[in-house]
Amino acid sequence: xxxxxxxxxxxxxxxxxxxxEAGSLIFQVTLGCSWNRCLFCASYRTKEYVVRPFEEVEKExxxxxxxxxxxxxxxxxxxxxxxxxxxxxxxxxxxINRRFPSLERISAYAGPTNLPGKTPEELSALKERKLxxxxxGIETGNDELLKKVNKGATAERIVGGCRKAIExxxxxSVFIILGLGGVEGSSAHAKDSARVVNAIQPHFLAxxxxxxxxxxxxxxxxxxxxxxxxxxxxxxxxxLRWFVEDLELGxxxxxxxxxxxxxPIRGATLPGDKGKILSLIDRALLDASPGMLRPEWAxxx
Length: 301
Ligand code: SF4
Known about the structure:
With 301 residues, the chain is α/β, with parallel strands linked by helices. Helices cover 35% and strands 16% of the residues.
């Protein structure tokens, strides 16, 4: 993805951002991912993780502020800028606040160990500097599966980190990868993921659907061991249904609009829209026409 502002900010590609940050000005505070070992993820395989020196990021922020002085939203990349030391992040946020007077919010990706690694005071200090939304891939709430895919954290640790961030005033946007457990693990993956999401009570929730890298067979053999069968689109819908059915959320925006999903759902709110979502999934289970489900060729990460 080449961002809109690449005419001015020289990005180190590849660069990824959530769909909801399409209009945000992006700064790469870190490059790559500090973990970079999740077996289903090839996003940053070509990059070595580094916390970029303050002076380097400062130059880009100052330059961008001349061109885009009215910026309201800033997104911090790459894979887990929240892994950077809190003091470094605070310095970058202070500068962003100074240079963009209309700034409303800053958001960033986090890895599963980043939030447990920060103190409540550090997270509050970042919140005071307009860090507002943290995006985090839970992937699954099933511990066995988290271990198999080498996520580097247990469900309990992920819940603890997310709760700590929420208590510091940050909004959490989390996602689950449908199909991660294959056909055999589908039900446990859906149910454990719902349990973990319920424990977190995030503000935003989304699903992605597994598209193995580089192909299904490699994922089957190298990642999940023998016997792993990829879910097809019908099983993916059943898994989504099990997941949604078990969700007990106070107030959460829910979407499946990511291009990897078969059934795009936009702008839903839980718990209010739960019945409507379940009905839509039931309809899709009976009618798999292209008007209802995204065709295989149109799916992408
Ligand atoms: S923590 Fe996120 S970005 Fe890093 S390897 Fe895992 S899935 Fe990829």
